[in-house]
Amino acid sequence: MTLAIFDLDNTLIAGDSDHAWGEFLVERGLVDGDEHRRRNDEFYQQYQQGGLDIEAYLRFALAPIAGKSPAELSALHQDFMASYIAPMRLPQAQALIDKHRQQGHRLMIITATNRFVTEPIARAMGIKVMLASEPELRDGRYTGDSTDIPCFQAGKVVRLQRWLRENGETLTGSYFYSDSHNDLPLLKHVDNPVAVDPDDTLRAAAEEAGWPIVSLR
After folding, report:
1. pTM of the predicted model as reported, rounded to 2 decimal places
2. For this structure, is 9 an active site residue?
């Protein structure tokens, strides 16, 4: 089955859900506001520049949910979805998802952002298959640590290749949509790479390679 793979942040939504979650925690008074915002902004800048220490960032991003269960965090995440994610939703992105669905393609989101933040977003978009950075659960509670290979840069390729083996799928005819030069390793692996509202580095690479460049905004 043809795979239609989508990055999430700044591709299917008009913003970064990981950074937005940090802003949400500050706004709700659930973290030390000034310090959390400073570090959140620093990590996001590192990501944009291609130099993010993903392990350090995951420790930072997962610390606020440590010791809590998914059920305990459910209402908080619903608030986040309504107040931060809903305004980021892009009608043209949903139309693109629906187009691939109508063509019988298998839909997947692959994102560096952790599963706690992103799984409800994927569910709202009607996408059931998602590869994401994985927060560790122990005895039903988040530990604040991550597990498995972070789903970032070349890690996306490793995680996807493992998923393909486990599910008997291939990348024949596959699509991957992304805004970020951090996704160049995976964009080079699929048959149909598409740059979506790309950053400057990805735009230059897409133009050189002759990849389609589209906007969903």
Report:
1. 0.96
2. yes
